[in-house]
Amino acid sequence: MSKNSNTNAQTGKNPTEREIVQSQQDTLKFFNVVSGQVSIGNDLRWVDMQQWPDIAFRTRANFVADHAGRYVLNNDGKWEDAAKWWLRHPERRRYDELTFDPALFYKNKGDPRHEYERSGETRWRLNLFTGWAIKPNPLGSCSMYYEHLEQNYCGSDPVAYDTVMNWMAHVVQHPGKPIGWCLAVVGDMGTGKSVVSDVLAEIIGKRYSPAFTTPESLLGKFNAPLGKCILGRVEEAFNPRDPRHVSTLKNLLSGGDVLLENKGVDPILVANRANFIFTSNNPHFLTAGTQGERRYFAFRCGNGRQQDGAFFKAMRRQMEAGGYGRLLHDLKTRDISGVDFTSPPRTAVLSTQIRASMIGLDRWWADCLEAGELVFAHAPEGAEPLGWDEWNETEGDAVKAHAKVGVHYAARPFQPLKSVVMASAASYARDYAGRPPSPGVVGKFLTEQGAVGIRTKEGGERVQRFRFPDLDECRATFAKARPGLRLEDLGAVATSDNIVALTTAQAA
Q1: Nearest to 361, CA basis, from 286, 448, 283, 288
Q2: What domains are defined for the chain?
Q3: How do residues 386-416 score in pLDDT, each as one tens digit?
């Protein structure tokens, strides 16, 4: 009841007790529906849901100002400011906690005000999720979006297309439930890489689909957008070689809780509800080192529609004419019951990211395997080969030379001097890591790669060497321990004769 609509106030008559009660009941009900008191850190705020589906938080002064002109009859039958009256009322709505839980929103029939019991008392929880921005519409068309998604975005790869469609369907059918791995697409400028995530953001709602374009926005101290994030659109927003970025990003993708911090408000721990799409023009845009293969579905966007502004404008018009609703309908009804979301398919793009992300001894040994020799090494007086092929060739010549004079000789596998191996690792580390590893660390690492430390007697002196398997076997051992890494990214994979089995008798 407003002041101007009250006939007793206009005629000068005192309001009846019934009118007072009715005025107060209406006012209490109104404010308890559109507002409520919440604690954010150490501060009190008042919820404003008048611009539904948007939810805002007001200070006391702003709350009173927003509702200026609304009055209520107090117990003395006098008109007073309704907002100030409600702020003093013992039955004003108080939200004990804020949450962001899309599943709870739909379970509660689309009402963000959630009533529950605790310690025998009725309490209230406010859900900051207020529903999708678009309603499903089976009558619309999104054929151009599907064309771009299949032919360009996924490069006409049926596995990539199904994976992306299933991933998007999971985001829609299980909103707020992190899958555990993200889409990661790389490509040239103007190919429409961001179009796919932008369309999905229109369906979900821009307020739940923030775009992160700088490291600070995604991984910085003030990360408030993550508190209400269902789809994170990440574009060049982190350094794949920065260990601080790597550790934070790993936690985000795993779906664990995140520490949320707003300016001027104490940090709070909230559930991570986000799934992410990474988009980049940079050839090395992912941190895919240890277990990185389980966190990304990495693929390349084709150039079929590069700089084709007319196509993308027409596609946007189609989406605005009902395509968004049709896409949402298709994703909600897509059968993903039999899809295994444990880990994504491994791709060639992911393998290159794993290779580029290597550091320390991993990077050193990968470079050695790719080059087929000990990089940065120098043999004493140039007497010994430093690579598998040259070593095998030299040993083969030795076998043939001994065969000619009737002397038995068995070709040795690649077994460079230990000092040469250590020099290679140390020189590499000084150039790329800054601090050379200790011999013990290098020895343990090489043992894991199948190498064996040996002692030989040469020229009357004991010499320490490492004996290595053949090059292809070394590559296979290294790749097997790093799922997702292709042998092609460790150099050419060719079947060669096993020179180690060659003896003088065979040469003869």
Answers
A1: 448
A2: 7-94 (no CATH), 143-354 (3.40.50.300), 358-507 (no CATH)
A3: 999 999 999 999 999 999 988 888 999 999 9
